[in-house]
Amino acid sequence: MKFYIFTLFLLFTSLTNSQIKVDEQIVSPGVVYKKITNTVDTLSIDIIRIDLSKGDYVIKSVKANNLLGARQTTTDMAKAFIDSGYYVIAALNADFFEADGEVVNNMISEGQFVKAVKFTDSPYNDYVNTQFAFTYDNKLLIDQFVFSGSIIFPDGTIESISRINSKTDSSSITLYNSYQGKTTPSVVEGWNVSETVLVPFANSGDTLFFSVADDFQSGGNMQIPENGYVLSTNNKYAYYLERNLVTGDTLRILLRLNPHYPDIRSLTGGWPLLVKDGENAFRTNPDIEGVIPRFSQNRHPRTGVGFSKDSTTVYFITVDGRQSHSRGMSLLEFADIMIDQGVYQGLNLDGGGSTAMIVKNKLVNIPSDAEGERKVGNCLLLLKRSNE
Is the peptide bond before 225 cis (omega within 30 degrees of 0)? Predict the structure, then answer.
């Protein structure tokens, strides 16, 4: 590791100004934007370095159109906050997503679950993919978070919640909120589905208190309240809940992640972990989280997020690729450039044609798609509470 960084240092210091160019600018107190252009290695790298101690900053995960099944460009998601009372400093595309825009991992926005699963929905692996989180007290986290929800019935019985939003599992309990859309999904052919509206009325830490608003209804496509949930049960659980719950009952629902950290404000997934405790995790384990060679070893555009050893500095990093001005990087190379820039814990996000970085409402990298910036599932925003 030290040998690589020393070699990289020698390479950079031995190049002439015409071969490598580093431009830096302060875009907000404690926030520095850097562009590295290397004509020898044919690379264009964009970096945002954020010192959280220098301003009242918020890192917010944003879902396209506030819907699980929607896509927007990172630029448009950032523009949506211009009139929000926040100063939008930067934005970065985030998690991998399905064709309809559904992210494949857990996601939390402003403390609310956009999606919660026990394992990734990625078609490429059955692992728990690593995720990046930001808490209300500015704690930075990178870990393999697993959803661990449960519902406590009036008689004290506890049952596991399989998911929040997204495709449900057979004989399971699922919660849906407004991120799912206006209604719950249609019923899978042959399944017995029974649903009811839950109205929140109190909370204590991770425990939410709900009242059962109405009798159970069959058939799916139930309207989802703007500020509540629909409790959806199917097959064996459908029969069980219909017998044991009535209108007006109080339910306690525990929504948390394992490992458990209280007060997570923003969370987004990625794949895979690249930097762990200042070391290149990919060099140690080239098969980490089930990555496949054509994804990891070939050079592609890359997007990543990480933070420093003292957890005070966040890094947004992109590398252009598949173009004449920049060839992209392998995951091994991307992890090393993260470490060189100061990342102690680092995560790879969705790259390829999705790679996009916004600084002060301007797209600063060049996306590889011929059509320009791609519509993606979600993004990370760097916000300041005001521009004073």
Answer: no
Of all residues in the chain, the percent with pLDDT exceeding 90 is 79
Tokens read off for 90: 């930067």
All residues at 6 or more sequence positions from 28 whose CB lies less than 8 Å from its CB, including other chains: 55, 87, 89, 384
Cβ count within 10 A of residue 284 = 10
Tell me if the pTM is above 0.70: yes
**Eight-class DSSP state of 64:** G
Contacts of 178 (CB under 8 A, 6+ apart): 66, 224, 225, 226, 227
Token couple for 282: 């990919």
Burial 118-141 (b: 16+ CB within 10 A, else e): bebbbeebebbbbbbbbbeebebb
Residue 55 has a pLDDT of: 86
Task: Kindly report, residue by residue over 179-218, the tens digit of the pLDDT.
Answer: 999 999 998 888 999 999 999 999 887 899 999 998 889 8
Q: Are 40 and 74 in contact (CB under 8 A)?
A: no
